[in-house]
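Fold this sequence, please.
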Amino acid sequence: MILLVALLSLAAACGGAEADMSATSVDDGPAKPVALWGAEGGFVTATTNVLRPPRVVLYSDGLVIVDASRQLKLTDAEAGETVASMERYLTGQPPTVEPKPGAPMVTDVPTTVLGVRGKEGKMLEVRAAALDQVARFYPKELSEAKKLMDGLATRAAATGTDYVATRVRMVAEGAASAEGKPAPWPAGAPEPSGTVDPVWQKDVEGAAVSAITKAVPAGQGYGRSLFKTGSGALFVLSWRYLLPDE
């Protein structure tokens, strides 16, 4: 009898362990980027370079975020088709694609970045300098991939909703010679510290987010984004919402 009870207890324990393992396998964790279109470099300000998000990011749960400011939710079928198309366009391309001989020299424009998460779980990224300007000198698949992601951006602009998050990235750029009347530094927001070369950045959450977004409303120009810290230093303050995976 004792042996029978022990065997039954062991079987129950094994059954419970199997159930726990099954539950764990269903939970894949937070959504991950599965396709993206962005830009790097180009003749832009230091603030733009630090704040610039991917133009379009598609996540594994179907969420599309455009410019960290608009969002759209795709159906499972739409998301699957988008990923499959991006994988077809980008598979076999080198990490950096060079234009064909004879392409004109184009400078000071961003490099296009296109990416897709393959079946093995790794993100494949392909870069092409001045893709818009010399598209005919690149494989047509790159332009098709960009066109596909641009279509999502257009949809988000027309039928999507505003994207907001509980975390923001703030950037302060020195403006010692700036004209205009600066506002006091937003109460509750951290002030720049250390060396600002050429910008100072910090990711924040909680009360600081409310302080920053109220002081510099989204989409507002630099007219009222000049602030003075407690020590008297002048900075242009900018920010954007952080993406789920940042």
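The chain is about 30% helix and 25% strand. The first strand starts at residue 33 and ends at 40.
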